[in-house]
Amino acid sequence: MRIDILTLFPEMFTPVLGTSIPKRAAEKGLVGYHLTNLRDFATDQHKSVDDKPFGGGPGMVMMCQTVFDAVEAVEAQEPERRATRIVLSPQGKVLDQRTVEELATKDRLLFLAGHYEGFDERIIEGLKPMELSIGDYVLSGGELAALVVIDAVVRTLPGALGAETGAADESFADGLLEYPQYTRPREFRGMSVPDVLLSGNHRLIAEWRMQQRRQRTQERRPDLWQAWLAKQPPEEPKKQKSKRRAKLPSSDAQQLGASDDQQTTPDR
Ligand code: ADE
User: Fold this and answer.
1) Would you say the CATH fold of 168-234 matches that of 2-154?
2) What is the pLDDT of residue 48?
3) What is the pLDDT of residue 167?
4) What angle do CA 52, 58, 63 make, to 5 degrees?
5) Is the distance from the beta carbon of residue 86 to the nearest atom of ligand 1 less than 6 Å?
6) How far does the centroid of ligand 1 lie from the alpha carbon of residue 140, in Å?
7) Ligand 1 atom closest to residue 135's alpha carbon, by position in its atom list
8) Which of 95, 138, 149 is the pocket-test mutation for ligand 1 (most atoms within 8 Å of CB)?
9) Confidence class of residue 240 from pLDDT cuts 50, 70 and 90?
10) pLDDT tops 90 at residue 244
11) Where along the chain do its domains lie?
12) Which pLDDT band, with edges at 50, 70 and 90, does 162 fall under?
């Protein structure tokens, strides 16, 4: 994948893309980052990239000419690779894992990060980029938002994560949040690791983890929980209890009866 980033602040990108997984992915040849300073495309002697908004109001607006020239010049560097253009803006579609995975299938992404009050609307109209937001709050510019999108996309590229890690069972991969994790020591300041994780019983561990994922999602993200429930196949019809009970020896039948009835008061 080729990733182009057009920005007034390329220096914000180099440390992040040169660290951890984004860096490793580039070293493995899974992705190449190409930074372009929008100011290099300013045409006046002051190297202006923005101007006051028509109609008045605070702040400055990114001008059309610089951005169009920059996008066209960058795309012409490798014209056979069609770029998916992305503008970062609080007015865009809010990023989610499904969009991340869709972007990860593209051969080339071009990020346009604006600063100041935003872009002249004709940039959106003329370049027809996808508009993406990373959440309902306002940042000083699109740079950090672009980095968030790039990190989320790059880590899903096959081979980006080491063999020991994988994106498959992470939060959102299947619509549920992740289960809690523990490592050594077994006891820390009076807090212990749940026994089941030390049991060595893989089936029980998997069941416990799934139960934790459901519980966390239900408690913390009712929106995700409802969406997950709606995706589940309908439950198989339960076997008729009376017939099954009839076949069991009387002691088993009694036990079943007790555990079926949530209201039963335990014997003291
Ligand atoms: N630019 C400023 N705020 C933003 C946000 N929340 N998402 C994307 N781009 C932005």
Assistant:
1) no
2) 95
3) 60
4) 30
5) no
6) 8
7) 6
8) 138
9) low
10) no
11) 2-154, 168-234
12) confident
pTM of the model: 0.85
Q: How far is the CA of 150 from the centre of ligand 1 (A)?
A: 14
Q: Which amino acid is at 109?
A: L
Ligand 1 pocket mutation, candidates 112, 139, 143, criterion most atoms within 8 A of CB: 139
Helices (H) and strands (E) in the chain, counts: 10, 9
Q: Tell whether the model's pLDDT for residue 97 goes beyond 90.
A: yes
How far is the C-alpha of 139 from the C-alpha of 150, rounded, in Å? 17
Confidence of residue 164 (pLDDT cuts 50, 70, 90): low
CA distance 155 to 167: 8
pLDDT confidence bin for 127, thresholds 50/70/90: very high
Q: Over 80: is that where the pLDDT of 207 sits?
A: yes
Question: What is the dotted CATH code of the domain comprising 2-154?
Answer: 3.40.1280.10
pLDDT interval class at 161 (50, 70, 90): very high
DSSP for residue 248: S
- Amino acid, res. 136: D
CATH of 168-234, one of 2.40.128.110, 3.10.20.340, 1.10.1270.20, 1.20.120.1460: 1.10.1270.20
Residue of 89, 131, 149 best suited for mutating to test ligand 1, as the one with most atoms within 8 Å of CB: 89
Question: Which alpha helices (DSSP H) does 28-176 contain, by range?
Answer: 64-75, 97-103, 121-127, 143-154
Beta strands in 95-242 (DSSP E): 108-112, 130-133, 187-188, 191-192
Distance CA 222, CA 73 (A): 46
What would the two tokens of residue 229 be?
A: 């429930």
